[in-house]
Specification:
13 strands; globular
């Protein structure tokens, strides 16, 4: 069997039918039209599709002027894979944004001291994950956040969730970590401390598959953040013949314009195969550096999908230079990297090429053969069971919610939100969680360059 065979993607008729269930210019959660970005001569030819996401955050957050980038796209080796991924990402983004108003009636406002006397509540050290100076600086730049770390008498918003690692138990988690873009309530005077991200949110056509995808995302981001900001360096993957065939399937021929640098990011305590792929343009033109990250029970699929993601991200640098050149200059000269766009544009530009490449190379140590990595699990059920077993050894406060919105009730889509506070989530590139217990357990932040992941 060819090692580049893709798994589980339906035919184009089914893929477009699924898109049609959510797309419509009057009643869909997306416009009825999707487009394939223009191919660029000489660049890797990856199948991709994108669509315009309506500004749902303005409704959910009741802010008619708020700007947000959804980074909505699907990509893959086939058009079927690209359309399927686009549909899934659209469902995920919509559900994540609408979850807050959907669960508003379940929010409880209380101090940790008060609520923990009646319920099991996540410790505040997992909410106040910055050092004091970082917290003060974040508050100065994004004024809705508190300038001080959380204290036991501070009122915050909580949401009760089923435990992931203690079946049958319920625990209370800070709503600002669970819901994307959570806003404080002036009536209760609750405080905000930590920006939330969609890490651990996933959509699929079954609840089990959505849960597995959410767990995988949480684990892969944790491994990446540890690798990028601490001394948890990763070995470079030596591609064999099968590996080269995988990369060629992603449009990355050995003699192509990009050097491919794959690294094995997996941490010993969470053994899911986890691969980061960095593309470095040989002629040092734009787009110079792009990075993709994927984990998968099959290590070869992790490599293939990581390479495909990095290839898709190349387009951000190319099209931003054409349509948003001031943002490209801003990323090189004055950004504090409080978004997930300017960091990508920073690495895409060839300015200070040696310094940027050195930052990437400093995250690696040693070499390895990906063929030495055994598959993580034979099927989805086994993968979920193994992941939860490993997570139970390091996480007491992992919780989840089914956030499938009512608008998708007559579709097969399910959306799961997983929060594992003991792991490192995605972070603002200029503000790694220096005070997080897991970051400290790995020796703390030693690498202050903003990360390259969108």
């Amino acid at each position: 069997m060819s090692p580049v065979t893709t798994r589980g993607y339906p035919g184009m008729t089914t893929a477009l039918d699924r898109y049609a269930r959510i797309g419509g210019n009057q009643g869909g959660i997306l416009p009825g039209m999707l487009v394939s970005p223009a191919a660029v001569a000489g660049e890797p030819n990856l199948r991709s599709a994108t669509a315009a996401m309506p500004q749902y955050h303005r409704l959910a957050l009741q802010d008619p002027h708020m700007q947000m980038q959804y980074h909505l796209a699907g990509y893959g080796s086939t058009n079927e894979e690209a359309v399927t991924r686009l549909t899934g990402e659209s469902v995920e983004r919509y559900a994540a944004m609408m979850a807050m108003p959907l669960f508003q009636h379940r929010i409880e406002y209380a101090s940790y001291r008060s609520l923990s006397s009646r319920h099991r509540c996540m410790p505040l050290e997992l909410l106040g994950i910055f050092e004091a100076a970082q917290q003060e600086r974040i508050a100065g730049m994004m004024h809705r956040y508190s300038p001080e770390l959380p204290k036991e008498d501070d009122v915050i918003a909580w949401i009760a969730c089923p435990s992931l690692t203690r079946p049958g138990e319920e625990l209370y988690l800070p709503a600002q970590l669970v819901f994307l873009g959570f806003r404080s309530n002036a009536e209760y005077g609750d405080k905000l401390f930590t920006p939330s991200f969609s890490t651990g949110t996933a959509a699929h056509v079954s609840l089990d598959k959505a849960l597995l995808s959410a767990l995988i995302e949480a684990v892969q981001i944790d491994a990446f953040i540890l690798n990028w900001y601490t001394d948890a360096k990763a070995p470079v993957i030596e591609p064999d013949a099968d590996g080269r065939e995988l990369l060629t399937a992603a449009g990355l021929e050995p003699d192509g314009p990009y050097e491919v640098r794959a690294t094995y990011l997996t941490r010993p305590e969470l053994s899911l195969p986890n691969v980061g792929v960095t593309l470095v343009r040989r002629d040092r033109e734009l787009p110079y550096i792009a990075f993709g990250l994927q984990a998968d029970p099959d290590p070869r699929q992790a490599l293939l999908r990581g390479a495909a993601e990095a290839t898709a991200i190349l387009a951000i640098g190319m099209f931003s230079t054409v349509f948003d050149l001031p943002h490209v200059h801003f990323a090189q000269k004055s950004s504090a990297f409080t978004d997930l766009d300017s960091n990508v544009l920073y690495f895409a530009a060839p300015h200070d090429a040696e310094r940027k490449l050195a930052a990437v190379e400093s995250r690696t140590a040693g070499r390895m053969d990906l063929g030495s990595v055994n598959p993580y699990a034979p099927d989805d059920e086994s993968a979920i069971r193994t992941l939860l077993t490993e997570l139970s050894a390091i996480s007491e406060w992992a919780g989840y919610l089914d956030i499938t919105p009512p608008a998708l009730a007559d579709t097969p889509w399910k959306v799961v939100r997983v929060l594992i506070p003991e792991l490192l989530s995605m972070c603002l590139p200029g503000f790694p969680a220096s005070g997080h217990p897991r970051m400290r357990s790995y020796g703390g932040v030693t690498h202050v360059v903003p990360h390259p992941l969108p």
